[in-house]
Structures are given as structure tokens and as C-alpha cells.
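Q: Mind making up any chain with C-alpha cells?
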Amino acid sequence: MSLPRHWLCFSLVLVAVAGCPRRFDPRANEIRSQNPQADAEFRAAQQQFQRGDLDAAKTAVQHIQTAYPPSEPLVGWARLLEARVARAQQQLDRARQLLQPLVDGPTEDSLRSAARFELGLLAHRRGDAEEALRQLAGFSSQIVEGDDATELHAVLADCYRQTGQARDALREYELFFSRAHPVEQAYVRTQVIPLISSLPPAAQTDARTRFGLVDPPKSDKAEAPASLRIGLALPLRGKDRALGERVLRGALWAAKTADPAGSAPSPATPPASRTAVELIVRDTGSAPESAAQAAADLAREGAQALVAPPTRAEAAAITRAAASGRLATLQLVTPSSAAAATDTRDYHLLYSNEERAQRLAKELRAAGLATVAVLAPASSYGQAMTRAFVDALQGTSVRVLGQITFPANTTTFTAQAKQILDLGPQALFVPATATQLELVAGQLAALGALSTQRVQTRSTEPTIQLLLSTAEGLSARLLTAAGRYLQGALLAPVALAGLPLVGGDTRFSGYSDDGGGVPGVLDAIGYDAVQTLRAACAEPMAKGQACTTELLTSHLQRVQLEGATGTIAFQPDGHRRGQPLLVRIEGAALRVLR
């Protein structure tokens, strides 16, 4: 079975290497033990790792290393698998400690090669490009064709780029480009443009051709199409790398799907979809000081607007740098409801968490129910959401019967469900993750406390007539696993992407097939960021005007469009106008409430 390819994460599940020593094949047939028990235990650990059950996989491989003698071939491979588990759990120092002896010690060749490969990927994850090159460069000409080869070339290209080796970077990017999905190719183009500019003029045209960057021929009879240059400063290395990658995928998808290459827009195409977009991407390295430099680089390269990182410290650095350069900035972090306006060019794409809680409280008041209870995590998030919800009910006829808390990592809600049952509220507010909501709903249904469950288990009428939740990280799993308990529930998620909606949603149709994976909240935010800036430039460009930063900033005040985060419009202070997104569970789908 082939594993899904994560085109920027580069997290490979390597298996044992066999075959000709001149070729390196991470997916060659695995080594087998003569001990059936050891073999079975190792295969089970691999399966647990591939399913994402990291703690169980770690326990299993540690047992193999202690239960069997060093002469058992799978002991070394178990150590390698433990290193992969450690890397997946962000325990990078531990992963290196496990791998280094396999590379330096008296290890058989196939295991040593696999360990070197993993050590190189680990070095790239740690941001050590030079070490990654020392470990991985030799594999470029040896690795067999496949997804692993594509990811290797992408890693090497990034490392060569970071170390200023433009020609080597372009060579590896070209190998990556030739094997990549269209969305991946769009990312590659954003990276090679500055590299190509460093080549001698005679070599630049050929390089641009190889990456599909040939300038269109100019015509005296028609003006060149107007374009919008959007700068994205995102963490593509370091601890926040996964966040930046998801935002980038959504942004690339918006730029690609809203302005299909080679096709002319029809008269029915919305103006926001007819504005050509060029994305300029710079890596912040998960560091505020690098974020400020990235903002300066993007301004120098002609970006009319910046999209800030989805992390607070980096976003603050971007805001300061963009303000000094007088660039419009679109913020992707959740703002504080009490935050004052910092700059007239600073716009917030998301509502505050407190606003989402208040929207749910408003819906509760409209439902005409008399009592409610709150079940929230004992965290700063849970406290803030509880306070916002309860404050929004002050002076109304709705009475709060109780505020129950639970540890943030709770996975069993038996005790809390019984407390709720004893309180007997007509409504329940659960500001928590979608996974926790699923567990809460299942436990309440087992006790017969939900009016939405199909089978009554108590002789009395269930008390909870309405369940409200922020459902953080909402995915289709909630509907399939607990939808039968949650019919009619009201949710206020940050965004909708890849979820079944009543009436359908085509925004991310084909996204997975095009290399984007399963879309989530961050993909949706990246998508909305590009579409919002495109919409702001649509009117001046339709009039033949260049979309300067000044025009873009003023037109952002007039923008109104339907996005994956709801209806997008802004107040004069740059915060979102209107009400946060609200959906109701109906059958196996979600209905968006206006």
C-alpha cells in the first residue's frame, strides 16, 4: 500500500533496504527475521506507526530492543523505527541519539543507508541545511524513482537554496518539478524565481522555460493582463512548519483555481476570479527575527500586500515590518476581542474566539430555552470562552445552571456527563475540540441525556434539547462518528473545508487529487487570504488601474465575498465585520446559517 505524500513535510516511512548497493530504494522489500515472534512484533509496530498510534509503536519497538539479543537483525531496525516515532513526536534530540549509532557503528549496509537517510531528513527538520546535505546529497543519483525520490529532491533543493548554492538548488528543484503535482509545481515556481535571477542572463531564459516561467509575448494591440503580487511570509522550517505548509497549500490552490492557466474568463466569472495573482513565498523559519527579514524581502520584491504567518510572535514581527514599509497586511492569527486597531493597513481575516462564543449565545437566546450548562477545558482558552458565553447571556431569561471543567487532555467524560445529567440543563455549551465533542456526545447519548439520539435509553424525556460547540479542528469524522447523537447541534468552527455541506461546496473539489491532501482549517484560511486580496484588486484592475498598495488598502474596506471562513468583510479598524460562521448538523451534512 502506498503511503500519502506530504510534499513539504517530507516525513517518510522508510523500510529496510535491499538489492543492488549502487541504488537506494526506501520501499524495497523489508528484511525478515528467522524468529517468527520477533518478525510478528516488528510488523505490528510498523502498522501502529503507520496508523499514527505513536505511543503504542514506541512501546513495541522498545520491547523488541530489550527482549531479543543484539544478533537479532530486527533489533537495529526497531531502533530506526523508534527514531522515526521520536521525530513524529517532535522529540528531535532523542531521534538523533537513536540514529547516530546506526550510522557510526558496525551496522549492515542497508540499515546504515536507511539511518543516514532518516538522519538527513531529521537535520532538515531541525533547520541544519549543511548537515542535511552531508547525509543526503549522495542519494540524489542513487535513489530509485518514486514518491520518496520526489521528496528527497525537494529536501535537497531547499537545503541548497538555504546554503546559497543556486545551480545545485535549481537542479534538484527541476528533478522535483518533473515529478510533482500541479499544486506542488506552483510552489516550486515561487522558490526558483529568485534563484534564476542569480544566473547569467543567457542562462535565465532556458531556466525559466524548464519551469514554465516563460514571459508571455507582448502585443501592441492588447495590454498585458494586470496582476496582483501577494507576499506570503510563512514558517516552512522549524517547529511551526506544518502550519505554514497548510496555509501555503490553500493559497496556491486559490491562485490556481480562481485563475486557470491558459483559459480566458467568461463574462459570468466573478471579478475576484479574473484578477491574475502572483504569489511570492518567503520562509520565516519559525522565528520572529526571520519573519521581519522576510517581510522586508517581500516588500523589496514588489509585493502589494503581505499575508502574515499563523503564529502570534511571527505575525507581530511581520506587522511591525509591514507598517514601516506601508504595506497592507492580512493577519491569520485569531485576534483578541479587546485588541485595539494598530494600523489602518492591518486586517484580520478571522473573528476572535470570544465572538464565536457570543454568536452561539445569541442563537441560544433565539431558541427560547431557559437553562444551559457549560462544559469547558480547564485552560485559558476554556476560561475565556466560558466567560464570553456567560457574559453574553447576562440580562436575559437564560439561566446558567453550572460551569463544569475538565483537564485539557481528557479522553473520558463519564464523570462530567453524570454531572450534566444531574444539573438537567435544556442546552449545553462545549467550547472544545471536535474530537472531545464526539466523546462528550457519545457519553451523554449513552446516559440518555441528548434529545437528538435515535434510541432512547431512559424512560424520561432527555433534558438537553440543544448542544452548542466551537468544534475546534472540525472534520468529517465528527459527522460519521457521532452525527446520530448531534442532530440539530449548532457549531461555530473557524472555517469549512472538505466538509459535506447541504447544497454542496465546490471550492476544494479536486484538491486532494492535485496534491493538496485533505483540506482543513489552515488550508481554508490560506485560500480565503488570497481570494480576499484578489477581490480587493478586482475593481481597480477592471478599470485598467494598477492595484497599488494604497488602492488595495482602500478597497479592502469595501470587500464582501463568501469564503471558507464565512462572509468576509471588514470594519474600519480592520477587524472582521458581521457574525462568525455558524452551521447546524442536518443528517450527514452541515447547513450554513446566514
Residues 227-261+270-350+508-568 form a domain with the Rossmann fold fold (CATH 3.40.50.2300). The first strand starts at residue 227 and ends at 234.
